[in-house]
Structure formats: structure tokens, C-alpha cells
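Exercise 7. Predict the structure of Toxin CptA from Photobacterium damsela subsp. piscicida.
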Amino acid sequence: MLNLGYLSVAFALFLSAYFLLLSDHRYLFSYLTIALLWLWGEYLLCEWWRRYQAIMSQQGVLIIAMDQSICWQGYVGAIIKVRFRSRWGYLLKIELLECTQGWLWLDPSMTTDEQYRTLALWLNQHYR
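Solution. The predicted structure, encoded as C-alpha cells:
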């Protein structure tokens, strides 16, 4: 499902490209083109800020119990699977009991090296 914001940005980009590339050269930098490019850049900046705020709200302490249940941001749930693993981190698919399913990114810089190695070994052992 496409977001209406993305459609408006695509339309503004199309109009900008039309006025820049297909119009007469004397209107190469018309006011409409400059205005559309300005709005497009402003939308991208606002979208970046919204995504940054959403990512920053996903921070919290992750507690993994011996029965493989997790507690994160006050919610209890379980790790469904490890979707992506690399030396830069792990992308976990989690299911919280009070909420829906979601994704959780675990980065090595979030903890000490020893704790991250222990977590990586545990994830590789239980979620192959």
C-alpha cells in the first residue's frame, strides 16, 4: 500500500523532471521547477526526521530469560526468528504479547563486546 506522501513526492519529482528536461530551454529553471524541487527536498527532510524519531523510540533494555522469552520496553514476548545476521548486527523478528509482531535490530555498539558475543552465540545456537 502506497503512502499518500510518497505519491505526492513522486508526482512532484515527475513534474520537476518534465519542466527541466522536456520543456523549452528558456524555462529551464522556471519558478515552478524550483518550487517543486524545494518542496520535494523539504518533504525528504521531514520524512528523514520522522524516521529518525521512530528509530530512536525503539531503544530500550532487552532482557532474555532462560525460557527464551524476552522483555523489551515493558512488554513480554518471544523471538520468532533471526531474519538477518552479520558482523554488523542481528535483525530479530519478535512477537510481543501485548502488541503485534515487529522487528528489532541488535547492534554490537549497544553493549559490551563480551555481552554481544554471548548474545550472538546464544542466537546462533537457538535460532539456526
